[in-house]
Amino acid sequence: MMKKEMLLRKSLFQSSLLLNRKGLNHGATGNLSCRNDNGFIITPSGVSLENLDSNSMVEIGFNGEIINSKSNYKPSSEWLFHRDIYAAKDDIHAIVHTHSVFSSTLSVIGESIPPFHYMIAVAGGDSIRCSDYALFGSQELSNNIIIAMEQRKACLISNHGMIAIGKDLNEAINIAIEVEHLAQVYVQAKMIGTPKLLNDNQMLEVIDKFKNYGEWSKD
Q1: What is the extent of the structural domain holding 7?
Q2: Which pLDDT score is estimated for 154?
Q3: Active centre residues (catalytic)
Q4: Residue 34: which CATH number?
Q5: Based on the structure, what is the number of domains in the chain?
Q6: Are 81 and 141 contacting, i.e. CB atoms less than 8 angstroms apart?
Q7: In the chain, which stretches have pLDDT less than 70?
């Protein structure tokens, strides 16, 4: 196994543990992937973390075929939207999908997150959209996600959960954590009143400033 592939497998396993520790996933929920030379490496389908290790990750080609797998597991049942996101976004090298509580809460009412807080810009725009519902693992779901992710690095998935993407796993995980925090604040704010929204000009200022901001800088 090549050194790059070994490092990606290890990073995926460790990142899966991290997301569970932070409560963004639980049991066998959610999935993660990293782009590789011949396709991408993804967490396996329906397997709890206690039964996984780095070798459990599955490498899959852009044609959907498993590549020289050392794993006895099948790839995540949602590998299709990972493939389609990579195909649509050349600069993206990691994808994180979670069933985190507050993002999922908003997703079950089909509600996008509006610009109630300046950190919404972490997802690349003035909102975090919620995609239309479709059956998990389906081409329809993948198509809906691609639409919701246009010019974005995160979206909610109706009646399902959340996706974050990045140039590497670190960026994708940081965005996923921030989106879940924003979802929590938004849900709690709606319980006590009507959140005040930032206007278009205010969000454009923030988005411009985020071009050189911390973990999400393009530099």
Answers
A1: 3-216
A2: 98
A3: 78
A4: 3.40.225.10
A5: 1
A6: yes
A7: 1, 68-71, 213-219
